[in-house]
Amino acid sequence: MNTNRQATTIAGALVIAGMIAGGLSVVPVLEDPNYLGLVVSQESQVFVGAFSQFIMIPAYVGFALCLYPALRAVNETLSLGFLGFRLIAAMFHFIGVILLPLFLVLGQEFTQAGASGALHIEALGEVLRTGRDMVNHVALIISLSLGDLLLFCILYRSRMVPRWLSVWGLIAAALAVSASFLVLFRVTSVVTPLYLAINAPLALQSLVLAIRLIAKGFDTPTLTTHHQHDGPRG
After folding, report:
1. Which residues lie below 8 Å from residue 46, measured CB to CB, with a gap of 6+?
2. Burial letters for 62-95: b for 16+ Cβ neighbours within 10 Å, e otherwise?
3. CA distance 170 to 152
4. Sequence-separated (6 or more) residues with CB below 8 Å from residue 50
């Protein structure tokens, strides 16, 4: 197996690992109306969620690093942008990891507080919960999706994967950005059928792409150098 084939296989496996970790990073207790009263008793959920989100950092960045050499051969500028957005997303993932244990601190304070103190902690809890949603479902998703738009532009032009898969990725990434703006402007929340439905195409496309990378890797690119972008295509 050559170096490029190994890289695409690892990249596909990292996508699947990241998706599994993403599912495990969900902390159901934080969606309960009485989450401050319950979160301490569900401490394991919080730690599993934080650890799983941390695992997503090397998975998402590793995916970009594995593909970068092949993408750079086609378009260095766009490939650098793709890698840069993945690194920005990694920063937001890390912030999300740090935010989770703070719910345990608030939960402990909530159980010990009186009536007046509990109201103050509830207000802090809502700020923290909203802030976590803004990090995970707005800043993080937008940075990932912008990077994906660059990735699928490269793949579309080079034909290293079937064009229908690249077009699917471009549309799905644009939908994911729109879903994040809906959350940002409070049109919808993150645990709604609308939000999940808008993000579903990108999740499914990522899985199909991962399987394709593992099973076949990249096709030989039609465009192999940066200077060939404006020339005839083979």
Report:
1. 27, 29, 39, 100, 101, 103, 104
2. bbbbbbbebbbbbbeebbebbbebbebbbebbeb
3. 6
4. 25, 97, 100, 101
Q: What letters, b where the CB count within 10 A reaches 16 and e where it falls short, cover 109-147?
A: bbeebeeeebeebbebbeebbeebbbbbbbbbbbbbbbb
Task: State CA 113 to chain mean position distance.
Answer: 37
pTM score of the predicted model: 0.90
The three-class DSSP label of residue 29 is helix
| Percent of the chain topping pLDDT 90 | 88
- C-alpha to C-alpha distance for 151 and 216, rounded to whole angstroms: 18
Q: What is the pLDDT of residues 68-123, one digit of tens each?
A: 999 999 999 999 999 999 999 999 999 999 999 999 999 999 999 877 788 999 99
Runs of H (alpha helix) within the chain: 3-24, 35-38, 43-72, 76-112, 115-134, 140-158, 163-184, 193-215
Residue extents of the structural domains in the chain: 3-220
Q: How far apart are CA 168 and CA 119, in angstroms?
A: 47
CA distance 171 to 202: 8
In 3D space, the residue among 209, 207, 201 whose CA is nearest the CA of residue 156 turns out to be 209
